[in-house]
Amino acid sequence: xxxxxxxxxxxxxxxxxxxxxxPAFAASADFAIDKPARTPCPNLEQDFRCGIHDQLRPRGFxxxxxxxxxxxxxQVAQVTFEGxxxxxxxxxxxxxxxxxxxxxxxxEFRWYLTEALALTEKLALxxxxxxxxxxxxxxxxxxxxxxxxxxxxxxxxxxxxxxxxTERHTRADVGTLRQLDLDAHRSAVNPLLRRTSELVRxxxxxxxxxxxxxxxxxxxxxxxxxxxxxxxxxxRRARSGGAGRTDRNRWRxxxxxAELPGADLLGANLREADLRGADLRGGYLIGADLRGANLARADLIGADLRxADLRGAHLREALFLTRTQLAAAIGDSETEVPPWFTPPxxxxx
Length: 349
Fold this sequence. Notes:
Elements: H1 62-66, H2 72-80, H3 93-124, H4 149-170, H5 174-179, H6 182-201, E1 222-224, E2 235-237, H7 323-328, H8 345-348
Antiparallel strand pairs: 1-2
Helix pairs in contact: 2-3, 3-4, 3-6, 4-6
């Protein structure tokens, strides 16, 4: 049976270039120009194709190659608006753009909830006693403190309800979509994703550390809340305090189970670090050296991986990874990614 995440992908031929119109661009390393929101990109042609699609990266638009609507674009174009495009029917433009903003968020929820369902299904079927994988089920935490299948089954029931509700929202008419309270829906989704992460990461080898256990010397954490999307997770943002950027070479070695949500790891030296089961939700990993790092069961939801070096990294079992994160990073043929991903073309070019 094909993994359902294969279906959550953009089909640009069935969309009306909504990602080239609705978002705003700011001239930066990701975009060569400024572009106001809800304004067509100057590279957009009349047939809704990009005039420089095969040259986006060399022309200064790597952000375009990284963007992934997860299928929200064609859902709005072909289902919500029944194939009527905003150029031929200009009265649909603003309602369509509004719908895309909401739909893109709903499809992101779908992506994460689909993964959470797959993860909890696997755990629910696991027979565990004193250690994961041993015969004989234990209800609740076993002697090792690892939650048993019963916890996964209970969580899975909640995930199914919220996942199904999310799918129903994606089939709503444009008026209903424009009135949808995304914050309220996010408040239902986020705790379930966090609980899934905790359940899965508890299966990783080694003790799960406290928030201060993996900070660089002299570091003191501080609280900062982050929202959905790039910052899907909410949690502690660890900074290096007075130690400064020179201490970033200390973020390496055995970091199994490290609690680092929202951590400032810009340019950090994490080469060959053991990050199995680490919580990196919403972390700033821009330009970090993660070559050869082991990120099995590490929670990467909302982590910023722009220009992070993932060559040879082990990401096959990383949690809540997205195509956008991979496309924004540096990788190669030795980077292990989950089976539902195709490595970005620029990794192999």
